Structure formats: C-alpha cells, structure tokens
Fold:
Amino acid sequence: MMPPSPAPRSTTTSATFIYNLPSPPRLPIEICEQIIDVVDCLLFLQDSRREVTLRSCALVCRAWHPRSGMQIFKCITLVDHKSSKRFIAALDANPSLGLYVKSLRISSVRYTSSPMDHKRFHFGFSPRDVFVLSPGALRGRLPSLTSIYAEWY
Structure:
C-alpha cells in the first residue's frame, strides 16, 4: 500500500487589476492645424529652423502630416543643383507635392540660420540656371505656383 500523498499546498496568485482609464482629451484637428500654421509664420524667415520644426511636426502623428507637408512645400528655395535635384526627385516620388508649392525661390545665396547673423554663403546657381531649371524640369508639375523669385549677389 502506498503512503498517502501530502495535501497540496495552497498557492495564492496575485490579482491583476486592469483599470479602464479614460483617454486623454484630444484637440480637434483644426486646432492642431492652426498650431502648425503659427509655427510656420513665426519661423518663416529662418528657413533651416522652419523646415526642421515642420518636419518634427509631421512626425508627431498621422493627422499632423498633411498640414506639415503643405507648409514645408509652400515656399521652396533652390540654392544649387543638389537642392534642385532633390526637389525634382521628391516630385517624382510624390507628384501631389507639387500642389502645395505656391512660391519658388531660386537663389545664388543661402542665409545662415541665425536672423541676427547677416553672413551669406554663395552656391552654384547662376542666372542662366533659371532658364535651364524652370521651363523643362518643372513645367506642369506645380499647378498652384503663383510666384517665382530669382536673386543673385
């Protein structure tokens, strides 16, 4: 005959509590778009800070991406062949970006990011490049374009 088996020990399990907390209040998308527009206006003259800030806004959430993209591509500045090739490649990859472009600035200078610093950096565009770049490469791709600026120093 076998000896009786010992009584099983009682085990206690810790209870897991799941709380149904309400989600944080969400701002209406119209308010978020107004914030993005204000960021664009405040940093408009500081191109490098403006673009970095708007790119960060585009990464916040999917809802912020369209308005941020619209502000990023509203005013395009091309300062050399590299920037023009990047812009044309972006249009090739996503032709709808051309709808956002309202003004195009073709320049031989790029300003520093500091508004108090008036130094300029010279790059490779010359006046003849406007005629090479604009008519051929961008024809029909910027239907919302209202102005083209060209500046050389």
Q: What stands out?
A: The first strand starts at residue 75 and ends at 78. The two ends are 107 Å apart (CA to CA). The longest helix spans residues 29-42. The chain has a mean pLDDT of 76.
